[in-house]
Design a protein that fits this description.
Pathway: Cofactor biosynthesis; tetrahydrofolate biosynthesis; 2-amino-4-hydroxy-6-hydroxymethyl-7,8-dihydropteridine diphosphate from 7,8-dihydroneopterin triphosphate: step 3/4. Belongs to the DHNA family. One of its GO terms (molecular function) is dihydroneopterin aldolase activity. Keywords: Folate biosynthesis, Lyase. This protein is of the alpha+beta class and 122 residues long. It is built from 4 helices and 4 strands. Strands 1-2-3-4 form a 4-stranded antiparallel beta sheet. Helix 3 packs antiparallel against helix 4. The chain is elongated and about 50 Å long. It starts with a strand and ends with a strand.
Length: 122
């Protein structure tokens, strides 16, 4: 696996995911972090966008997934984001973290989250 990575941190979207009816009706913010592992040497050497993954395109794909579909579980949302990245871009591995800062929990907390790491099929 390459040690190089492209990082998108703190992408915030308003969406309607969750198991509770109020979550599906009212919605809430979700924060997504993504790390894409790939060899960045060709892009660094050529200074050419065509030699890397365009993070604007990754952002748009994540936004479309988070806001365009509904999931009950953060795990399912993270899996969908990871699989779409792996099938849309030439990356070796992806780490996706989905944070839910307004999860319906009784108490004070920063967020509830899941983090998954998936590899592309060789």
């Amino acid at each position: 696996m390459s040690k190089d990575k492209i990082i998108l941190d703190g992408l915030e979207f308003y969406a309607f995911h969750g198991c509770h009816p109020a979550e599906e009706e009212l919605g809430q913010p979700f924060i997504v972090d993504a790390e894409l592992y790939l060899d960045l040497a060709p892009a660094g050497q050529a200074d050419d966008l065509q030699a890397t993954v365009n993070y604007d395109a990754v952002y748009r794909l994540i936004r479309e997934t988070v806001t365009g579909q509904r999931f009950k579980l953060l795990e399912a949302l993270a899996e969908a984001v990871a699989q779409k990245i792996l099938t849309s871009f030439p990356v070796e591995e992806v780490l996706v973290r989905v944070k839910k800062p307004r999860a319906p929990l009784p108490g004070t907390f920063n967020y509830a989250a899941v983090e998954i790491r998936r590899r592309s099929n060789p």
